[in-house]
Write a structure and sequence with these properties.
heterodimer, A: 180 residues, mainly alpha, 2 domains, B: 218 residues, alpha+beta, five-stranded antiparallel beta sheet
Chain lengths: 180, 218
């Protein structure tokens, strides 16, 4: 081809040619979707070891779908459907909870954005529904990370009494109807 | 540790120290309290991203997946390729493409329910090597066979007429309840002169907790 003249496809020399996109999404796209899944699972199981195990289960199940070149939105839907099933199995095995008792985990919608301040606000909403003592014990224990002894000292109570109050407060919080 | 408040506090303490959730018995209210405790413990730490080392492991798992164009199950079956599902204890579903033996009349296909879901059907310890165990996962009936740390599964429906198969421990075969036909644990017909089509394989896996799950229906 002579310099300065269009080629057979009519492209000017030096023109940018867009190559067709790869059918399969790049691994980093898949990993970003799995970050969603990890955050969602962590928010439910509350510890890293279980969250990693469950996320890995979701990832390995999803590999075939990730390789079919599905759009990110479809991948996310599939990942969260898988996450529902994995979480359901987790609670069922660890606590013997039935699916009826897991209505929230199994009916969860596919999130459109990473978990953010909303979740913290929701937890505050639950605590706000509790009596002063129940709210205080959960705030100190969970949000401030106090030991039982420290909570007892803060509330002018005994460790035994705080332990009982903590259980009652958690039972009461479990009954608050808020979409976590 | 027998008192519920002590059991739940141990779990709370584990959670606040970043340890795994562990079952310590209790009634429905106690279980609900534990689920709530897990969420409150998570809220304390705020939105989480994956640990870099864990993310790296996942990345390697994704990259080491087969690079060849993914073959759909239908295409695999049309091409006469059997898809074998093998479950490995401590791992997850491992799938391998196996060339079908040229002499087989029909390769056993894969039961692949639409909107299928993994159903917990047994503990690994429930399975006895060399013995078939009948299980149901919603609308999917299957016989499980343990071999070491792996489990395989075939449908519990005969390929001749849709009758339920029965495990014949004496001969180590699956007998049809309607006709004098039987199948080996791998699903192949025992009759060499007029072999029936191979039983469909059922997808099965073993979880890290040692539970056996079958891909069934709701």
């Amino acid at each position: 081809m002579e310099h300065g003249r269009p080629d057979q496809l009519g492209r000017e020399p030096g023109a940018v040619v867009e190559l067709p996109a790869s059918a399969a999404p790049p691994v980093d796209v898949a990993l970003e979707e799995l970050e969603f899944v990890y955050a969602y699972i962590f928010a439910r199981v509350g510890n890293r070891a279980d969250a990693e195990d469950l996320t890995q289960q979701v990832a390995l199940k999803a590999i075939p779908r990730l390789r079919e070149g599905a759009p990110a939105s479809a991948i996310r839907g599939y990942l969260f459907a898988t996450a529902r099933s994995v979480l359901g199995g987790f609670w069922s095995r660890r606590l013997g909870l039935s699916e009826a008792e897991l209505h929230e985990d199994l009916a969860m919608a596919v999130p459109q954005a990473p978990p953010s301040q909303e979740r913290a606000d929701t937890v505050q909403g639950i605590l706000a529904e509790l009596s002063d003592n129940y709210r205080r014990v959960l705030e100190l224990r969970f949000l401030h990370g106090y030991s039982l002894k420290e909570v007892a000292a803060e509330m002018n109570s005994t460790v035994g009494a705080v332990k009982v109050m903590q259980l009652r407060a958690l039972r009461a919080a479990a009954k608050v109807k808020v979409d976590l | 540790m027998n008192k519920p408040e002590s059991r739940v506090d141990k779990i709370v303490s584990d959670l606040l120290h970043g340890r795994r959730l562990r079952l310590r018995g209790g009634d429905a209210e106690e279980k609900a309290a534990i689920v709530t405790a897990a969420r409150l413990a998570a809220a304390r730490q705020g939105p989480q991203r994956m640990n870099p080392a864990f993310r790296k492991r996942l990345e390697q798992a994704l990259e080491s997946a087969p690079k060849e164009p993914w073959m759909t199950r239908r295409a695999a079956l049309v091409a006469g390729v059997g898809l074998a599902a093998t479950a490995v204890a401590g791992g997850l579903v491992g799938r391998a493409l196996e060339p079908a033996a040229a002499t087989k009349r029909v390769a056993g296909g894969l039961v692949n329910p639409i909107n299928g879901r993994w159903v917990d059907v047994a503990a690994m310890s429930d399975l006895v090597e060399g013995q078939g165990k009948h299980v149901t996962a919603g609308g999917v009936g299957a016989f499980l066979f343990r071999r070491g740390d792996t489990v395989s599964a075939v449908t519990s429906i005969c390929t001749h007429l849709p009758c339920e198969l029965r495990w014949n421990g004496g001969n180590a075969v699956l007998d049809c309840s309607c006709h004098p036909a039987s199948f080996m644990p791998d699903g192949t017909s025992t009759d060499p002169t007029y072999p029936l089509p191979t039983l469909n394989k059922v997808q099965v896996r073993v979880t890290t907790a040692g539970r056996v799950e079958v891909l069934g229906t709701a």
